[in-house]
Amino acid sequence: MAEESDAIYLDLKNSPETINLKTPQGFNSKQLNLTKQNNYTVTPQNVFDYYNKTPYDKHSTSHTNEKKYGNFTFGNKTDSTFAPEKFTQTSTMFAKYSKNKFSLNTSYKSNSFASMEKTGKGTFAFTPEYKLNNHVTLQNVYSTNFMDRNRKNELIFSLKPFKDDRMNFDVGAGQIYSDTTSPIRSQVNFSTKFKF
After folding, report:
1. Domains and CATH numbers, the chain
2. Is the whole-model pTM more than 0.70?
3. What does the alpha-carbon distance between residue 180 and residue 150 come to, in Å, rounded to a whole number?
């Protein structure tokens, strides 16, 4: 049988080589940190996980920053609502003047995720407020929505049974005027707030 010049053969005549393995290097035992790390990034998934994994519920959060200078208060407020089908966020800038039992509030509220053509078309509100005592307050809210071109005038009667904000009852009656629709609409609102 003729040998080919590029053929490779196994030579079994020589004794097989022994393999020298080094002793494995030792490792110091380390404890793994398996504690849950909270993720405070505001996303709908994190909010659902925070609220006991109930993805079909609607959850709302609110954050307020304000500064006081004498009788004046300036600030902003952000309200977010998370739901499986949507995520909304509104931003409100406000200013308030308070003296004794009387106060004047102004605010501008806008949608944080509005498209470019809707930017600057939020709601402006002007609210004089008078405290009859520590439990009863009267408000007259005048607001203008630049997006819907609606104007609203509402009188609100507020009752706080306690000296703090644990419970609050509101009754309001108002009228809505629109530049695009008619006639004038009237509405009555009832609300109850509890703080735990």
Report:
1. 63-194 (2.40.160.10)
2. no
3. 8
